[in-house]
Prior knowledge:
- Helices cover 64% and strands 0% of the residues.
- The protein has helices at residues 18-33, 39-47, 55-71, 75-87, 96-108, 112-120, 125-137, 141-153, 162-173.
- It is globular, with a radius of gyration of 18 Å.
- The model is unreliable at 1-12 (pLDDT under 50).
Amino acid sequence: LLSPPSPQHIHDTIIATDAQFAARQAELQRKQQHGTLTPSEHHELAHLIPPDASEAEHRTHYLRHLCAAARAGYVHSLYALSFIFKFGDNGVPANPALAQRLMDICAKKQHPNALFQAALREPDPAERNCLILIVAQKRSQTACWYLAECYAKGRNGFCANRRLATFYKKLAWDDNTWAA
Length: 180
């Protein structure tokens, strides 16, 4: 019944060892030197920070690659930047208007968790709940956790239903569900 995971789903492999980390980072750095990093690789490289990096180097590296991917329209980077601007994280001053603009762009690009954030802003409770159910089908982990809680406790217009609470909790843990 649920739609297949989005082709934009990221991080399909887990780097488990120091050797894997070093190899992947070296590969991406070679591509960076040649100017051939794709937006998704910039996003990935933003998260591959050497363990000996200082806090300032960490922030600079992270933001440089996140912004490069966002400038290219990469939805995951836009989504991450929206929270950086919302909360003023990583040494960046808070800018709620820009944060909302970035979140709206992500929703237009069909990022499931951005769609969930947009659904929460719907003033009509019945329409909001309908939108949240649709977003959960698009594999928004945030929407799945929200629905699990609502069904478990009978809140926000959802009747208590232990079976549905369990269903959405399991769906939130599924590998094909979008994490925030």
